[in-house]
Every structure is written in C-alpha cells, then in structure tokens.
C-alpha cells in the first residue's frame, strides 16, 4: 500500500514540474512578446495559459484522490496540501502572462512611447523567481526557497521605478497617457507574478518545515 502511495506522490511531483514548465514557457513567451513586439509569441503565451488551466484540474484531482483513498502521514499531508496551494499560484501566473500578452497584442500596431529598460528586468526577475521556486520544490531545498522569497523585493523596487517613470511621461505629454497606463498594467502583472512565485516558495518552505510564514507572525 505504501509503495503505491509513493508512486502516486512521485506522479504528483512530475505533474507539478510539468505545470511549472508550462508557466515558465508562458512568462518567457509573454516577455519575448513585450520586448520584440511579437504577436506570435503573445499568442503562444495565451495557449500555454490554457494548458496550465487543464493541468491545474488534473493535479487537483490527483491530490484529492491521494487524500481520500490513502491515509497520508503528517509529512505527506504537508506535501499534498502545499501542492494544492502551489497550483493556485501557478494558475494565476499563467493568467497574468496571458494578460500581459493581451496588452502586447493590443499595442502591436503602435510604437512604444519609450525604450523599455526596467520592464524587461522585471520579466527576467519574475522568470528567475518562478524557476527558483520550482527548483526549491524539486530539491526540497529550504535555502533556495528563502532566497526566492527575498527576491520579491527586487521586483517590487523595479515596479516603483517603472511606475514613477510612466507617471513622469504622462506629465510631459498627456497623449502618452493611454499607452503609459497599459505599460503600467504590464508592470503590475509582472509584480504579481513575483508575489505568486514568493507564495510558491513559502509553500515549499511549509512542505519542508511544517511552518508557513503566516504562522511566524
């Protein structure tokens, strides 16, 4: 019975990694679309998001099967509970990559009002956070998880820089206002992706230690 349960836990890990790969592809495609004004890449990110949604439902069903048909011990229960929380954040990351891509498609026919400098940095940091959080899960590495949690400050700081620059652009030329707000939304979506990556890392921490950040307060 235990060997069968271990097989199902291994399957859960594989499914999580597949979902993680999908969200990484979604963010990378959205980032490429933004930087290169690439509508094809934007459409790929939207397709990846749909695949992420399907994978979320598959993992939910597997987790519920493990909880209902098996009798997980405390450590296993933490792992399954963490997986259920993680896929919620992963699904939202997919949504936000698709949202970024939707804005890119809308802006495709118009030149950018300014050279994009910090938005690509936000995209790169978001990808690193998501990849790192999943790496921490695979390796069950508490130190990596903590590093990812701390990285969220980098994206938050970049968001403030982008926001302030775009506000200045609007003040200089009100005609830039509409696109400035669209680019601000892109920055906000990248900032949210960072928040969700941080959440994933915190649930990895919980799966290892049995303590969640909220419990330390």
Tell me the span between the first and last alpha carbons: 39 Å
Into which percent range does the helicity of residues fall? over 70%
Largest sheet: none
Task: State the fourth-level CATH superfamily.
Answer: Phosphate transport system protein phou homolog 2, domain 2
Domain count: 1
Radius of gyration in whole Å, from Cα?
A: 19 Å
Instruction: Compute the average pLDDT.
Output: 91
CATH top level class name: Mainly Alpha
Which characteristics define this entry?
217 residues; mainly alpha; Methane Monooxygenase Hydroxylase, Chain G, domain 1; 0% strand
What does this structure look like?
With 217 residues, the chain is mostly helical. The chain has one domain: Methane Monooxygenase Hydroxylase, Chain G, domain 1 (Up-down Bundle), CATH 1.20.58. It contains 7 helices and no strands. Helix 1 runs antiparallel to helix 2 and helix 2 runs antiparallel to helix 3. The termini are far apart. 41% of the residues are buried.
